[in-house]
Every structure is written in C-alpha cells, then in structure tokens.
C-alpha cells in the first residue's frame, strides 16, 4: 500500500464515520499520511483527527478513537494506535502490501505512479527565454502529464512575459538562470545539472557531471538501473526469472519476501518505491510555487532509490553452490521493480536509462 492509497483508506474511514452519524463534518478532499514522528509507532501516521476535531465539535482524542475503529477495518491495516494529542499511527500488513507493491510495479511498468488525478485540466506555465527555465518547464509538463493533466507553456523575456488569461491561472517559472550554456555536457548530463538543484539554487555547470564514478549522482542512478538489468540477465543464465505481476514474490515456502527484508537497503527500497506516486503527484499542484520544485524533488528521490537499490543487489543472486530459491526470486522481483521505477523516473526527466554502462 502506497501513501497515496493509504490516504484514500483514511478518507474512506472518515466517510464511513460520517455516514454512520458518528461524526458531523464535511469529509475533506485529502488527508496527509507520513512517517511517524518522535514518539510515534507503526508504518505511517496521520493528524486527520486533529484536523477534524474543531469542525466536529469534539476533542481530538475522541475523534481519533472513533476513526480508529473504522480505520482498523480497512484492507491491509493490521493495527491503529493513538499517540500524543490524537495522532493515528497505522501499522500495515507488510506481507500483503509489499508483495502487492512489487507485483503492481512489475505489472504497470514505466507507468507506475501515473494517474488521471488531474485529467482534463490545463495548467498555464509562463517561462522566460532561458535554458534552465525551458528544461524545467519541459519536465513539469511531463510530470503533470503523468497525472493526466496538460501544461501550456507561454514564453516571454526575462522580465516581461506574454499576456495570460488571468494571473491566478498562470504559474510563473523563474528559476535562477544557468551561469553558462550547459550544452558541452551533452543532453543527459546537461539536463541533470539544471534539474537537480532546487529552482532557487544556482546550478553548477561543470565537467563533474560527466565523471563515471559513484561521486556523480547521475552516474549512480544510471548505474543502479543498469545493475538491475544485469542481475536479471545473470539470473536468467542461472535458470530463474520473474515474469511480471504473477511472479511468486510471496511464496508460502520461504520466510524471505520483500515485506520482511533480508538484504541491506530492502526496507528503505520498499518505502521509496511506495512513495514514488506521491513524488510524481507533487507536480500536479500547479500553479502553487512548491510544485515548481517537483523536478528537483524527483531527482533526489531517484538518487535515494538508487542508493537503496545498490545496497540490495549484492544478495539477489545465489552464491557458490547455492541453488536459486523463492527467496532469490523475491529479491530479484524487488530489484526489477526498482530498476523499472528508476527508468520511469529518468524518462520523465528526459534522461536516458541505458541497460549497459
């Protein structure tokens, strides 16, 4: 279960409480779930009870107790605890949710995280004639497109822009310009150099982006993707593969599945894979200024995902005389899911994801 899916489950619990007459509130359009804070428990936490307490005319702890009973009935939820002034701390059935997550990614492929959340909406993005602004606008359009929307780009000078229908309908994109033309880096490294820093930070246009070492973040991401492809080829040579959404990643004959990580990085890898749809969805908040940082946010997400993938990969294949087992199939499925998400994320950035490096 991804944070986006869990958010829907929390909303469903609220709606059920309202329908049963337990709460007299307007069901919110969205709720936020995140990692538990200090003193929290479980896999995720939400402050929805505190959010609804005032309109419900009840103490937050009372609202939390009501919602706890409904939320505990949701599929995939194993426990709900109340901490602090009324935070709901949610524990998930990792055996079910992690296996389902891997199957979902392998089934959806490069479109994992794509939705129709803003289908039919058109966002006007006003940008100056400057290389960094152009690249950011292109990636924002790709990310919004992944959520079903469309971006209309309007150009203008560094200060004056073409007229737009109405100020509130336009997102003005004015990142700190590139200090020099990044073309000498080549298309992929140039894009990375412009996209990785936050829009308000000055991009660094240097040959460091071309270094084929782990000190180079772009190389690390592409290398992690290429390694997942190499592991798949090597596994096939050893006689075992995963074949997509029906892969036996939660076989009953093994204690090792992606939901009970048995490799370094596996738990963090699962968390990052589950969070990928939320990262893509941040671009759909245009014209809010925070949405303009979505490309930079995606680069950092892919870098964290690459590091967790590289930590996971050494234990995927059997060693020595060890025979391939269900545990190895589970690890391979998780590695292939990670490679798929890395490739999909790079494609949204307009950067190639080669199978060989």
Automatic annotation (TrEMBL):
Q: Does the keyword Ligase apply?
A: yes
Pfam families in UniProt: Arg_tRNA_synt_N, DALR_1
According to its UniProt record, which reaction does this protein catalyse? tRNA(Arg) + L-arginine + ATP = L-arginyl-tRNA(Arg) + AMP + diphosphate
Renumbered residue ranges of the record's region Disordered = 238-263
DALR anticodon binding domain: which residues? 221-357
* Low complexity composition bias: residue spans: 252-263
Keyword Ligase appears in the UniProt entry: yes
The EC number(s) given in the record are 6.1.1.19
Outline the extent of the Arginyl tRNA synthetase N-terminal domain. Answer: 4-92
Q: Which InterPro entries match?
A: Arg-tRNA-ligase, Arg-tRNA-synth_N, Arg-tRNA-synth_N_sf, DALR_anticod-bd, tRNAsynth_Ia_anticodon-bd
Name the source's superkingdom: Bacteria
Q: Which UniProt keywords apply?
A: ATP-binding, Ligase, Nucleotide-binding
By its UniProt entry, which PANTHER family does this protein fall under?
A: ARGININE--TRNA LIGASE, CYTOPLASMIC (PTHR11956:SF5), ARGINYL-TRNA SYNTHETASE (PTHR11956)
Q: What is this protein called?
A: arginine--tRNA ligase
Source organism per entry reads Streptomyces bobili
């Amino acid at each position: 279960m991804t944070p986006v899916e869990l958010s829907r489950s929390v909303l469903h619990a609220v709606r059920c409480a309202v329908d049963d007459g337990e709460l007299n509130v307007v069901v919110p359009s969205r709720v936020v779930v995140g990692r538990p804070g200090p003193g929290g428990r479980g896999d995720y936490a939400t402050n929805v009870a505190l959010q609804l307490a005032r309109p419900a005319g009840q103490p937050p702890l009372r609202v939390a107790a009501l919602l706890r009973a409904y939320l505990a009935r949701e599929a995939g939820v194993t426990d709900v605890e109340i901490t602090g002034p009324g935070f709901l701390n949610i524990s998930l059935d990792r055996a079910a949710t992690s296996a389902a997550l891997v199957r979902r990614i392998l089934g959806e492929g490069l479109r994992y995280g794509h939705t129709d959340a803003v289908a039919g909406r058109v966002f006007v993005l006003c940008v100056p004639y400057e290389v960094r602004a152009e690249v950011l606008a292109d990636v924002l359009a790709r990310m919004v497109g992944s959520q079903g929307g469309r971006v209309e780009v309007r150009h203008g000078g560094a200060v004056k822009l073409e007229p737009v229908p109405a100020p509130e309908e336009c997102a003005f994109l004015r990142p700190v310009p590139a200090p020099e033309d990044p073309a000498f880096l080549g298309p992929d490294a140039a894009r990375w150099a412009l996209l990785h820093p936050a829009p308000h930070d000055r991009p660094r246009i240097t040959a460091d982006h071309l270094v084929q070492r782990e000190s180079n973040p772009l190389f690390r991401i592409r290398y992690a993707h290429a390694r997942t492809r190499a592991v798949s080829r090597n596994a096939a040579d050893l006689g075992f593969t995963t074949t997509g959404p029906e892969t036996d990643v939660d076989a009953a004959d093994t204690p090792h599945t992606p939901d009970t990580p048995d490799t370094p990085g596996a738990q963090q890898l699962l968390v990052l894979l589950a969070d990928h749809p939320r990262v893509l969805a941040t671009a759909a908040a245009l014209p809010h200024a925070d949405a303009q940082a979505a490309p930079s946010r995606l680069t950092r997400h892919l870098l964290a995902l690459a590091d967790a993938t590289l930590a996971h990969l050494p234990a995927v294949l059997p060693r020595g005389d060890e025979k391939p087992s269900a545990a190895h199939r589970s690890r391979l499925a998780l590695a292939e899911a990670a490679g798929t998400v890395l490739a999909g994320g790079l494609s949204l950035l307009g950067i190639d994801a080669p199978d060989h490096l």
